[in-house]
Amino acid sequence: MRDVYVAGVGMTQFAKHMDKSIKDLTRIALDRVIADAGIKLSDIEAAWFSNSGWGSSFGQDCIRGQVALRPSGIEGIPITNVENACAGGSTGLHHAWMAVASGLYECVLAIGAEKGYLEDKAKMFKGFWSGFDVENAEAHLKVLKAVSDSIKLGVPEGDAEGAGTSRSAFMDIYSAFCRWHMEKYGTTQKQVAIIASKDHFHSSMNPYAQFQKKMSVEEILAARLVSWPLTVPMCAPIGDGAAAAIVCSANFLKRLTNARPVKIRASILGSGTGRPLDAEDQDIAVRLSRKAYEKAGVGPQDINVAEVHDASSFGELHQTEALGFCKFGEGGAYAESGATTLGGKMPVNTSGGLISRGHPIGASGLGQIFELVTQLRHEAGNRQVKNCRLALAENGGGNLGFEDAAMCIHILERVG
After folding, report:
1. Residue-wise pLDDT tens digits, 96-114
2. What does pTM read for this prediction?
3. Rounded to the nearest 10 degrees, how much is the dihedral formed by the CA atoms of 82, 14, 235, 331?
4. 86, 178, 388, 408: which one is catalytic?
5. What is the CATH number assigned to the segment(s) 4-119+238-414?
6. Which of 17, 95, 181, 359 is an active site residue?
């Protein structure tokens, strides 16, 4: 397998783009990634297009990439449509990496776009159920019951109404696992709020973020409840956006006059298993990250900055444990120590993460790559992690049983 590089990245701001279509958002991200890489549109030999909701929300069930990319001038080449729930963008990048590493292509595109926000709130929240087994909806409820039955920690009075009416069904999953973690390890709601506050601080320095306002721990704890112990600022917002990456070979890089490449040291894609609830050492992020570390020839102690999938702030807490940045049960204390903030031992979600940068599903994984490439180029401005050389992105999607249905791990390295 050949060495593979990210030659360029581009993205829109993640926000509620009421005046823009999927095609519009795709064009913006494409124009920016082409300019950043310093290539011509005709250099792109193949493309992977990630999207999850265009079909259920707007009726574009098929040929999404072909429809989205043709108005921007990409046609005739192989275009592969990628749907892997929230892990779609990183899955597209994985396949782009594989195509170049195999020697099939020299320069390819991974791009994701999503219109997640709908004025019809019932339709919008209903769409999240497609991230579970829709033919076996009872399985989702059984997961929640299994987690709830394993803990004694109650839910305070005033918890919000049920999923499907006012929130994503995934927030019930995150809140249940958070309560399980609180009971088993003594994690506190305040520690989860500290993570959220840290990410809102990071996003205040990110012009691409959906939210760019700092929030104190006290403000986060006092905010409207979504599903206890999670309040609104602890949960990823719904929004729109697009992000993209140009992936190429070392030979292609020689053609570029002002290249600022980042090397892909590892690209791992996997699926969840039916592991028992208590078998944390078998978690999908544990399994895949160890494969990624082995592939890259590094360990968690070598990573300088990470973007992890935090559809809720508890998700970030869990991933810092599963990825090996701290021990299981210590994620809350690890965040409280300041380790995961800028200037800390292991800065996590310097973009603001999903909860503050935003989470347009098909674009989120590539939004992580945008941030990490920017960090590794040392171009992140006020949110720059000093002297960073190695970065990790973890992007999960969907839910089956006690873990993500799909996940990608990427390890990136600064060149030069």
Report:
1. 999 999 999 999 999 999 9
2. 0.94
3. 80
4. 86
5. 3.40.47.10
6. 359
